[in-house]
Every structure is written in structure tokens, then in C-alpha cells.
Amino acid sequence: NAGVTQTPKFRVLKTGQSMTLLCAQDMNHEYMYWYRQDPGMGLRLIHYSVGEGTTAKGEVPDGYNVSRLKKQNFLLGLESAAPSQTSVYFCASSYGSQSYGYTFGSGTRLTVV
Amino acid sequence: AQSVTQLDSQVPVFEEAPVELRCNYSSSVSVYLFWYVQYPNQGLQLLLKYLSGSTLVKGINGFEAEFNKSQTSFHLRKPSVHISDTAEYFCAVSDGGGYQKVTFGIGTKLQVIP
User: Fold this and answer.
1) With an 8 Å Cβ cutoff, is A104 touching chain B?
2) With A3 labelled, which of A11, A70, A74, B114 sits at a CA distance of 20 to 30 A?
3) A89-111 tens-digit pLDDT
4) Strand ranges, E, within chain A
């Protein structure tokens, strides 16, 4: 039972490069989320999706794009990486109602140089 | 708007001693409250949650939390900690509406000293 799987686990990018982070869940969850975690700032929501084909902006969406073409996958793209995007990125999913809580992936540590 | 304040950024405690991690929240509506734990180099794991009913909530690994509406608090406690409890703990609040937006606190690092 894999839960939420994120790839890659680590990545180093040069400023201006682009990349895509993949999140896959096998729990048939409707809701999926992308967060970034920075020291002293907790988790901040980047984008989220309430179902296949739908996405919406969170608190800090600038510089990121997302897609949810399949229910089980949620992709996060960085169009032109900047050093300010150096962070740990977490994907999470939930069944629907928040009463179930979130299931998190193990994270992607991204460094932009 | 909802917010979460975790009052301590780091809490050192000796092994087998009790611990309390403090969390206060603000919200204009009824809330759901959560505690998550993050072990080093891992994702967050749900520890426990308060939805309604009994104000004392029991979670995994011997942790419990008490919802206090008048003080808008949801403190996490454990009567006797172990080395394996060393981790970062996040309090979170959700107003349960719309897309069930969840706001996380900045985390409290629990360091258990042998």
C-alpha cells in the first residue's frame, strides 16, 4: 500500500531551468494538494485540486503551475526556477471531507542555484 | 481568516518525562483541529484530530490532546516520552468549508534527551 508517492526525492536546478514534480496516490482520493515547507514558516499551500481536471491557487502560487489530468496524479511545474523556490515540497491527498485528515508524501528537496 | 500559533519552536525534554506542546488557534467558525508529526526526512503523519464531541482526543503513539473552546487551544500531551518521539509536531486547523482549507502552524521541534 504505497499511499502518496513523490518523485524525485532530490533535485538541484540552475536558475531559469524548468522541472516537474510528480505526485501519485493510490487511495482514490478526490483532493490533492501541493505544499512547500520552509524553515520557520511551516507549510504553505501552493495549489490544490478538488478532482480530476480541476485545479486552483493556494497561498503562494506564483512561479508554479499544476495539472491533474488523471485522478491519481497531481503534477507541479516550475516554469523558470528561482533561488526563492529552494524548499521542500510536499504533496498531500484527502478523501474529501477534511475530517479524514491528509495523507502526505515523503517530500522532494529542491535546491535552485 | 483562521490562524494557528504554536507557542514554542523547540521543546527539550528528558526521556520518560511528560511533555505538553502548545497550540492556539483563531477562527470565526467551528473548526476541525489536527496534530501531525514529522520524523526527520519524512512527510507529515496524522497523529490525532478533533472534529466534535469529547474534548479529549487520543491519538497514536500514546499522545492525546484537549480541545478548549474558551481558550481556543488544542495542546498536545504525552505522559512519558521516548527517544523515538523526537520529531517536529505541527498543529493545524480547518474550518471544514469549501475546499476544506487547512492552516498549519510553524511547528514545534520536540527533542527527547536520554
Assistant:
1) yes
2) A11
3) 999 998 876 667 899 999 999 99
4) 4-7, 10-13, 19-25, 31-38, 42-51, 54-57, 64-67, 73-78, 87-94, 103-104, 108-112
